[in-house]
## 1
Amino acid sequence: MGFLARLFNKLKGPSSSPAEQSIHVTKDAVWVYLKCDRCGEKLALRLRKSSEIQREEAGKQDYQMFINKTVIGNECFNRMQLRLEFDGMYRVVNKWLQNGAFISKNEYESGA
Ligand SMILES: [Zn+2]
């Protein structure tokens, strides 16, 4: 990687690179990368937009769509409670995770 490429990466900042983020929105799905608090297992969760995302009908909120999901990994029975809130463009405006932690895609792919 040349000097200019490195400079460019630096200017983009640490959180703007997709690989540094824990939530990736594709055309038909939302990917969430997380880690179990209990056993440390790393998980990549694929949530289908068509079936998992619900519309917020109340109208007053600062989000328009949301996902509530109980996540259970393969290594233990820890139940992680995930909630994501999106605006009308599927951009995440709020996120919560109980009993687990959000990790970046990089961290997930770096292996166990
Ligand atoms: Zn676990």
Note: Residues 3-12 form the longest helix (10 residues).
## 2
Amino acid sequence: MSVVDVQAGCFRNLLSFSFRKKRSEREKNDVPTKSARRPTELPVVQVPEAKLEESERPGLSVKEGELPPYANAGFFCAHSNAQAYADLVKPPAYSSCELGEYFRPEVLETIEDTLEKLNPALRELSLDILHHPEIQWEEKRTHDTLTAFMSSHGFAVTQHYLDLPTAWRAEFTHTSSSNADAKLRVIGVNSEMDALPGIGHACGHNLIAIAGVGVALAIKAALEKHNVPGKVVLLGTPAEEGGGGKINLLDGGAYEEMDACLMCHPSPGPPNYVSIGPSLACQPLEIEFFGHGAHAAWAPWEAQNALDAAFLAYSSVSVLRQQIKPTHRVHGIVSGKDWAPNVIPDYAKMHWIVRAPTWAELVALRERVKACFEAAAHATGCKLTLKAGPGYYDLRQNTPLGEEFAKVVKDFGVNAQFDEGMAASTDFGNVTYALPSLHPCHTIPTKPNGANHTPQFTEAAGTPEAHAKTITVMKGLAATGFRILADGEFTAQVKKAWEEQMIE
Ligand SMILES: [Zn+2]
Ligand SMILES: [Zn+2]
């Protein structure tokens, strides 16, 4: 066998080559053959179980096998999760908004009646979406189901809106003869649709989908019954979980005519609680390291190791995390193809997500993270390519809209607070930068450590209790949306507040 043959062959060929070379020497010296000496099993090493001694800490005892309960408060963007949980167990009194009489109580009655009648159909719709999860940009069935539902309830529907295969638009306009020529105000509502790979509707977007439908239909009923002119536009917004569907819709002008836009999101947390807080700005990054493959034992010096580059990048980011703010997040994964331990990988791919409380902070943090990838490429001699995915802006909740919503849901026993918000991100943040918007996060009953993006949350999103909590939120959003259409003075306040929030 020539040297060239060995290099072109597999690990087995290489072994047989070196083994054959030495056999004659062994035979000469009467040394046992390699196969006779090779143990069939490695000796078992007993590792003693480590015992963690901890002093008793009252109030923080956890049963064996359970994570501490304050892990549930992880969605709140607080400096200390434990403190955040302690604060939330006893929700603070209203501080940021004064609650008074809400706008036109008779309209709220219409909204309540409408949602009560729709309740069984909305429940059916929610379970149908839950049991047929579709990931980002593949929400075909959900698109068809929801557009058929809106059509059958008197909305003008545009399927595959703006050439996005799973986006849609449903609109309803009510004009009254007295002011047929006046410019109508427009309220926007969003229905999310996408699930997560492998774990279904683990972010509860089935509940968001039906919330959008319920809010739009309740506003329609109120406009008709109380003869108030106005337009409701419900957008079916695909690909929230990383695809940035709302950014495509924004770029295509879908939000341009809206005076304000509303949606909601389920989350874990204390019962009957709604968080009206910010979320983190977010930027996905796709990194590729291109190296040169080689035999891992025969000629490792010929290689540029792309897997090493990925591990160096991972380690560098891990070290960087110690020097970033507690409100910042950097997290990622590494993947490759056709890897084998005896071949030095010539390619590695990484997906990272960088998050910070504002887009401006994110841009600064992103540069520091980028330096980690560049350093890894330099150290290993690999080529680096870096692609930035859709950037999600932080969520800027409109204060008057939030106060109006809080007033209404308080009547249903729900405590809505302008709090620290969530340490997650949404493409609705970009909508809040473009126009006055509201995105309350309402709590639904969840199992311990079963927050968003876990299979336990998928289960929670299908319970009758979660459905009931979402119906209450629909009442608050529909009443708030109706006021935008019916009360010009309120809409002016909402717009003024948005302008002020955007120059902060
Ligand atoms: Zn999610
Ligand atoms: Zn979500």
Note: Residues 174 and 417 are 33 Å apart (CA to CA).
